[in-house]
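INFO  loader      accepted 1 record
INFO  loader      residues=291
INFO  predictor   begin
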Amino acid sequence: MLFFSCLLWLTSCSGSKVHKQDAAAGKTQLLKDTYGTYGAPPRLANGHVNMDQLLAELKELNVTVYHWLIWQSENDWDDLKTFLPLARKQHIKVWVTVVPPTESKPIARWSSEPYQMDYKRWAEEFARLSLKETNLVAWSVDDFAHNLKKFTPSYTDSCLQAARGINPRLSFVPCVYYRQITPQFAAAYGSLLDGLLFPYRAESAGSNLKDPSMVESEVASIRKLFKPGMPVFVDIYATAHSRLGASSPEYVKQVLEFSKIYADGVLIYCHQDPVKSAAKYNIIKEGFNQR
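INFO  predictor   done
INFO  writer      dumping tokens
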């Protein structure tokens, strides 16, 4: 009896290990070939996202991913549900971001609605939605490492366990800046993350939106801190930074070219208007069509 009990336990453990390996492999596959834009969708007069215009622009840009931000409208969560099947028909994968406490009410004008700072609930809802809309492949928290008082390893793990209990193939790829990606951060959070969204600002050279030359070295430094194969996605400032100012079209072009070589994917912060930001829009289109 004891023999069969042990055999059953070993079989169960082996099956669980294989299941986790399959889920990890599935995540890696879904995160491959990530080239897209983030937030700032065109909107209708009623505040809802202009789905037809957004999809037409994404198709023209030749994106593989659109990164949806839930923040500046109470309609964003419902609009995401409308957008997902439309994007799936265009073979576009979707990431989704919610904002942390430092970007929520009462500090900020908006919060992510409707669940605000209940990140465990967000994790569960994203996981449920991703079972139905299979092109929803990742979720993120903006400025994650600015908010580690909230996102302790224990709390972060509880959110991820809630999501993975529903859909183990949904990835968590938080936004973390270069100076925050320390050996201590990697040791505490590395096992919890499926990838890193890395906003490039040449921080190893003092922080600016002028110098594209640090992409290779900064991505390489990040990789050394994590397990082999941890995906690093460069987030490029096409929209101005509140402190560092605006980037030039040439800067966006060069960072995009370096990122295609040295990173595992590229996201553009933010989605650019093809009329108001024609130069950057066309550079992104050219860069994504030549990958």
